[in-house]
Amino acid sequence: MLHRAAPALTFQDVIFRLKSYWAEKGCIVQEPLDCEVGAGTMCPETFLRVLGPDPYNVVYVQPSRRPADGRYGENPNRLYKHMQLQVILKPAPEDVIELYMKSLEAIGIDLTRHDWKLEEDNWESPTLGAWGVGWQVMLDGLEITQFTYFQQCGGIDLEVVPAELTYGLERLTAFIQNVESVYDIRWNDRVRYRDVRFADERQYSVYNFEEADVDSIWKEFDLHEAECRRLLDAYNGLEDRAARERFPLLAAHDRTLKCSHLFNLLQARGAISVTERAVVIQRVRNLAVGVAKSWVDQQRGTAGAAS
Amino acid sequence: MSEFLLEVGTEEIPDWMIPGALADFERRFRDALAKCGLGAGVSTTTEATARRLALFAAGLPAGQADRQEILTGPPRRAAFDAGGNPTKAGEGFARKAGVAVADLQVDEKGKLFVARTVKGRSTADILAQVLPQVILSISFPRNMYWLGKNGPRFIRPIRRLTCLLDGEVVPFAVAGVAAGNTTFGHRRLGSERIAVSGAADYRLKLAANRVILSAAERRNKILSEAEKLLPPGRKIRGNPKLLATLTYLTECPTAILGGFDASYLTLPDEVLETVMLVHQKYFAVEDRSGKLANAFVAVANLDGDPGGEIRRGNERVLRARFNDARFFWDFDRKQRLCDRVQSLKAVTFQADLGSYFDKTERNRAAVRELAEALRFDAAQLRAADRAAELAKCDLTTEMVGEFPELQGQIGGLYAADQGEAQDVADAVYDHYLPVGSGGGLPRSEVGKVVSLADKLTTLGGMFALGMIPTGSRDPLALRRAAYGVIRIVVEGGTALSLDRLVGIAAAGGNAGKLREFFVERLRYWLREVGGFAYDEVAAVLAASDAAPLDAAARAKAVAAVRPTPDFEPLAVSFKRIRNILEQAGGERKYAGRALDRELLEAGAEADLHAAFGDVLGKIQQLGETARYEEALREIAALRPAVDRFFDDVLVMAEDRAVRENRLTFLARLLTGLSSIADFSEIVSA
């Protein structure tokens, strides 16, 4: 049997194709959030949109920063910042798994020749008060996607259950291009991943592990937390519906994300003892839960006003 | 007799839950049938893959049997007037019963009645009614909802229901899915919609659509293919848990042989195996001598790998993982384990119990106490102390960060690599043992002491804080820790008393509760591992629960002597003595009293007294060397004397002094002979 592979897709081709695929399936194509996050789940496009009864379908690439995972650009598989392609399908369609499989086929993966498995993997984020059940998707032994049916977010049981698909773009492309190191991924025909990303991997590793000033990061953390709290208290103090509707809860959410990132940074810096860790997680969680609760309230009000 | 097929088609169910869910499914189905009077003579079987739970039943009746029903109405007097014409009440009853007035009958009390036959419902009707509940009540460890928060809950979304009774669809719906006559095949090798006409057709069509329904068949396919792939002299390292996982993770399993560079074999086996088995779900391969080979067997959910893509992909993933492990191994070894002790101050053990450094200090103190109790020599004490000092240091290594399941083992490997004495390294390696109820114990006495110290200080610390496990909440696995202590003491032959263990644990005000906690674990061990009967365990622990090892030895003796002819009758007599004493004011009342030999009646009573004195001396002597079985035989030999006593002697004698003296004698007898086991707890057959 003649089986000649077409030239493997580039990194950007993989992104283009996945975005077009999901756009064809009715997703809006969003751009990344302009704020540091550890995962695409934390973006308002996921974290806030999954709340409430309204349907929402979206695809976006979210650069995700995990300071502790940095390896100075020296480890072939570990990155401080990796790219997630995030898909939210709310409500989850009945054929969601088949849709997902076809997305892999859309980037040239022949699932009659590659071993594809769904292995149980439940997801939980203590800082977001969120959890879901689902799988890690394994392709020839490599985890390429996290598939989650959200059950709770911001401590709230979801009215409508969405499916969240999170593709690890570097791994997936390394697989498709059959390269051993993410730095060898062809970004396009001429440029490699290393050319684009090596400098920030190295520099941010130096910053996260060596240079970041612990005292000022704690101060920043406290400031963002205080601002978020101030906003949440102000919202809860409002009696007037109209005033609630225009209130900047999204700005409060930004502050929560800042705190979450600064917490990760402090941890990478080794500045948080294990005991403190639980306390700081609780502080961030309180913000996230506060934002989620207020958001649900605000949306309900808006829907009520529209009808 | 009807044939029935029900398939619950779902998204991928976690492999480890499937066998339990299937059993529950079958049980609930049978219960539902039985409740509706359809259960007799029905045989059921089940099969499953990750995407389907299938139940087959044969021998179902066509429906419930018809049954007679008596409807009682008003008295005849009220239903007919003097002229024999029906009154309103008579007509009303006839209408309600659905018969003509002429068909009304009169019972012996003069009341009207109608006997009528109620048609049994058809099996199809009943199934349609009960199946939704049967399906939704299958129990899984963690359910989800997918149709909104008030929707049905199941382990994963239900996507298809196939339900046929003699080829006819049984009409019902669950979670918006209507039962029908179609199923689905393998996700890529089969068709998405396959019509089936019955159980046999279902199996055939699934096979044609690359679904091997039988778990046994999938299991055998994996094993036989693995065997064929490997060259002579090599075989997969057997692992029943992994085999079960792969069996339920696939619908069409195919074994694929892969390899890796032999240079990775310099990494510890523990690390290689964890990566292959746990992280990648591959079988490790070993050569004739049992040594790991540079090969693995992966199992794909496809029918082959003609182009080798799957093999190459898996090899690449494994290579990346082994590279990481090699990096950690080299990196960690740049810092000696003993130089990590201080960094344990930054690792919290438990909020109120401080860091692992503090824990290490407590462990070392406990080791010293245990060593003293067990009369360790200086070298043993040195080794145990050193092991306790190093035991937690691997928590700061990269390798344990990556492979938390290898904590302890990694420390032991680094210790050996860094020139620590072998007994120290082994004790570090083993200090979390035993894990679970079947796992091995620490290999050496030094290792047992280090493990005991670690568990005791955890238990003591948590109990002192009042954090005692209740219900299913036991986050620090204290039950397992306590059970580990019991296993080391009993199975490891460590002669430590419970009081001593509890004292070393230092549980503060909750020492009593901790002791009780240990007794419960001991009771469990005696029952489940020792295999002793409930009453034997009760008898032994009632005699004394002071020393677990000793209790086990006594239980063994009781079980050995129990089948002898004198034993159970003697137990009956002991129970009689206990009852007599209880009625006479309680055993304790007579316990301290002096016995007046002069008052003993010549004959049966005096003889028993003499025999008792004789036996008492013997069993005390035998007890000192734990020869409990012989001691029990001595006691059992008292049976004729005891029998004669009860035949000839009236315990509750008229004369008060004689009576009291006799009760005192019996109390002594009971106490004296109950040091090994309290016979009155024995339930005779």
Summarize the structure.
The complex is a heterodimer of chains A (307) and B (685). Chain A has 307 residues and is an alpha+beta fold.
How would you sum up this structure, described in words?
The complex is a heterodimer of chains A (307) and B (685). Chain A is of the alpha+beta class. Chain A folds into 2 domains: 198 residues, Bira Bifunctional Protein, Domain 2 (BirA Bifunctional Protein, domain 2, 2-Layer Sandwich), CATH 3.30.930.10; 93 residues, Methane Monooxygenase Hydroxylase, Chain G, domain 1 (Up-down Bundle), CATH 1.20.58.180. Chain A is 45% helix and 20% strand. Chain A has 9 helices and 9 strands. In chain A, a hairpin with a 2-residue loop joins β7 and β8. The radius of gyration of chain A is 20 Å and the shape is globular. The N and C termini of chain A lie far apart (61 Å). With 685 residues, chain B is α+β, with helices and mostly antiparallel strands. Chain B has 5 domains: 149 residues; 52 residues, no CATH class; 118 residues, no CATH class; 194 residues, Orthogonal Bundle (Hypothetical protein af1432); 119 residues, Orthogonal Bundle (Isoleucyl-tRNA Synthetase, Domain 1), CATH 1.10.730. Helix content of chain B is 49%, strand content 14%. Chain B contains 26 helices and 20 strands. In chain B, strands 1, 2, 3, 9, 10, 11 and 12 form a 7-stranded mixed beta sheet that branches. Chain B has a 4-stranded antiparallel beta sheet with strand order 15-17-18-16, with helices on both faces. In chain B, strands 4-6-5 form a 3-stranded antiparallel beta sheet. Chain B is flat, with a radius of gyration of 36 Å. The model of chain B has no long low-confidence stretch (mean pLDDT 93). Classes of the chains: A alpha+beta (307), B alpha+beta (685). At the A-B interface, α3, β4, β6, β7 and α9 of A face β7 and α9 of B.
